[in-house]
Design brief:
This is Transcriptional regulators containing the CopG/Arc/MetJ DNA-binding domain. InterPro entries: Arc_rbn_hlx_hlx, Ribbon_hlx_hlx. It comes from Natronococcus occultus SP4. Helix content is 48%, strand content 0%. It has 62 residues and is mainly α. The protein has a domain at 27-54. The protein has two helices and no strands. The two termini are 28 Å apart. The chain has helices at residues 10-17, 29-50.
């Protein structure tokens, strides 16, 4: 799996960390970020689909 590097504000990182760990929803930051990116892309695909901007429904724009 490729690795990427991103810069995010400390406040956002602190919010993210509240959901990570033994008491959180995610095992680690990577899992949390992957889930967030996946969810955001799904939402954007739904918006594009509603506006007929998807060519085949798989996230490709026409």
């Amino acid at each position: 799996m490729p690795k990427i590097s991103v810069e995010i504000p400390q406040e956002l990182l602190d919010d993210l960390d509240e959901h990570v760990g033994d008491d959180g929803k995610f095992v680690n930051r990577s899992d949390a970020v992957r889930a967030s990116v996946r969810k955001t892309l799904d939402i954007l695909d739904e918006i594009d689909d509603r506006h007929d901007r998807l060519e085949d429904g798989a996230g490709r724009q026409s």
